[in-house]
Write a structure and sequence with these properties.
iron, rSAM_sf, 4Fe-4S, TIM Barrel, S-adenosyl-L-methionine binding, queuosine biosynthesis, 210 residues
Length: 210
């Protein structure tokens, strides 16, 4: 394909900058401990300084891939698919999720919510960032709110975000990995004093799996 044609295909969501795809155990949030196939899409301008996949930010580093190939690979491994990034909502997720749905798969997304929602989702995990706040639609539709705690001020941010999501969203506080020794005890105390919240840990890192 010509470069111009590839660009048009990416803009339409029929090709996506694929960083990696892998079958593993969900390590965070509500579905911790369950098997899932992860599709990591490149491209993100939210710019969290503590991001542990900064190599995902530049979409140009990741090959535009036909969504048919992504769907076929995903269907071989699991009934639950997690779309993550980067920021997957940078792109139109409609074609990819339609293809996955045709295979009878459950589709989850992990998103900062910084862009309008596209695609069809069985589970939306919203992980908002201060640098680029979510759009209202994602607050309204999220099943799960996961706030990363890097410092004490993030507890204030977490409450601000909890006030914006729908009443049925399940609330999680998760220590940023490099600050886990410092922040985890604070999170435990906070959840015990504010039991609407739950603790989320990056258990896949403790298990040494992707």
């Amino acid at each position: 394909m010509l470069k111009k044609d590839i660009q048009i295909a990416v803009e339409k969501g029929v090709m996506l900058p694929l960083m990696e795809e892998f079958y593993t155990i969900q390590g965070e949030g509500y579905h911790t401990g369950t098997a899932a196939y992860f599709i990591r899409v490149g491209g993100c301008d939210v710019g969290c300084h503590w991001c542990d996949v900064k190599e995902s930010w530049n979409a140009d580093l990741h090959p535009p891939t036909q969504i048919e190939a992504i769907v076929e690979n995903a269907a071989k491994y699991a009934k639950t698919i997690v779309i993550t990034g980067g920021e997957p909502l940078t792109w139109d997720m409609g074609p990819l999720t339609a293809g996955l749905k045709e295979k009878g798969l459950k589709i989850h997304i992990e998103t900062s919510g910084a862009y309008p929602l596209t695609g069809t989702w069985d589970w939306i995990c919203l992980s908002p960032k201060k640098t680029k706040l979510p759009v209202d639609e994602v607050y309204n539709k999220a099943q799960e709110l996961k706030v990363i705690i890097y410092n004490k001020h993030d507890f204030i941010f977490a409450e601000e975000q909890a006030a914006k999501v729908n009443k049925d969203a399940i609330l999680f506080l998760q220590p940023e990995w490099s600050k886990k020794e410092e922040m985890t005890p604070l999170i435990v105390d906070y959840v015990m004093n504010n039991p609407k919240w739950r603790v989320s840990l990056q258990t896949h890192k403790y298990l040494n799996i992707p």
